[in-house]
Amino acid sequence: MDWTEWQQRWDAQQQAYLPDREERFTAVLDAVEAACGRAPRVLDLAGGTGSITRRVLARFPASTSVVLDVDAALLAIARGTFDGDPRVRVCSADLATQPPAGSNSWVSLAAASTPCSPPPPCTG
Ligand SMILES: C[S@@+](CC[C@H](N)C(=O)[O-])C[C@H]1O[C@@H](n2cnc3c(N)ncnc32)[C@H](O)[C@@H]1O
């Protein structure tokens, strides 16, 4: 499976809904860097295929990320994309019923987040 192609197709589809999506990602990562430096621990809530996490790793190679989402198809793309990368964990969880443990102590920045406590338990 060509996971890069699937990622690109997801990004193209999302970009159609949100033309300034890339600029928003850059602004989010600027905020992450200002708050946490260049080796952030990121919680990519509702992370889908891991679009934000890919950009986090490209900009901050020393970062780590947990991608959390409920959609099995998007999670499959995320798992394929980050397979073998020890910096990334991909978790299946429904935020409506399974908020991350200690969620009130996580700092959230528009789906790119920096954890202030251990990551949530993985259910899948
Ligand atoms: C517009 S997409 C954004 C995905 C990704 N952050 C991105 O920028 O490409 C919204 C995401 O929220 C996820 N989502 C919606 N409801 C959710 C829930 N209750 N728990 C976890 N994820 C959820 C969807 O599966 C989808 O991946």
Descriptive notes:
The strands form two sheets. Strands 1-2-3 form a three-stranded parallel β-sheet, with helices on one face. It is built from four helices and five strands. The chain is of the alpha/beta class. Helix 1 crosses helix 4. The protein has one domain: Rossmann fold (3-Layer(aba) Sandwich). The chain binds S-adenosylmethionine. The site of S-adenosylmethionine has 14 residues, from helix 3.
Class by helix and strand content?
alpha/beta
* Distinct ligands, ions and cofactors found in the model: S-adenosylmethionine
- Tally the helices: what do you get? 4
The fold-level CATH name is Rossmann fold
How do the helices and strands follow one another from N- to C-terminus?
HHEHEHEEE
Radius of gyration: 14 Å
- Overall 3D geometry? globular
CATH superfamily, called what? Answer: Vaccinia Virus protein VP39
Oligomer: single chain
CATH class: Alpha Beta
- CATH architecture tag: 3-Layer(aba) Sandwich
List the domain count as a whole number: 1
Low-confidence stretches: 103-117
Short précis:
The protein is α/β, with parallel strands linked by helices and 124 residues long. The protein is 41% helix and 18% strand. The strands form two sheets. A three-stranded parallel sheet has the order 1-2-3, with helices on one face. It has a two-stranded antiparallel ribbon with strand order 4-5.
